[in-house]
């Protein structure tokens, strides 16, 4: 197991590499070289690394607060968009939603502690789910629950 120390958001973290997989472009059928060896030729490839974070209690609590804030913002934006359309038959676009969210984040301290780009990504996910509903026939966006998603389990 390889350990990689780094600093993120003021926290000293250590990542433990548990797996390395490579996804090659479909036309290239070459395998990855062994660790520490250079590839035989210039290959366009995408490497995917899987890491497990070993957090202290304070770091785990901070991440849980960030995730809770993002879930709250997602539900707030979804409810706001539904209410606008239900009562006023007005649809709000992503840019307008992000502007209003920035104003809310300045007023509410616990939402403001989450990075602005993270909050913008939350609205991006909401609008992608709306696009999936209208363009691809996927299900209507649902409110986010407290239960962890299957991909976030360690």
Summarize the helices and strands and which ones pair or pack.
Layout: E1 2-8, E2 11-24, E3 45-53, H1 57-88, H2 94-107, H3 109-112, H4 116-136
Explain briefly what this protein structure is.
The protein is of the alpha+beta class. It has helices spanning 57-88, 94-107, 109-112, 116-136, and strands at residues 2-8, 11-24, 45-53.
Q: What is the string of helix and strand elements?
A: EEEHHHH
Low-confidence stretches: 15-31
Strand order, sheet with most strands: 1-2-3
User: Strand portion, in percent?
Assistant: 15-25%
Please work out how many helical segments DSSP would assign: 4
Helix content: 40-55%
Mean pLDDT across all residues, rounded? Answer: 76
N- to C-terminal separation?
17 Å
What's the alpha carbon Rg, rounded to whole Å? 20 Å
Shape: globular
Assign the structural class, choosing from mainly alpha, mainly beta, alpha/beta, alpha+beta, or little secondary structure: alpha+beta
| Main beta-sheet annotation | 3 strands, antiparallel
> How many β-strand stretches?
3
What this model shows, in words?
- It contains 4 helices and 3 strands, in the order E-E-E-H-H-H-H.
- It has helices spanning 57-88, 94-107, 109-112, 116-136; strands spanning 2-8, 11-24, 45-53.
- The protein is globular, with a radius of gyration of 20 Å.
- The model is unreliable at 15-31 (pLDDT under 50).
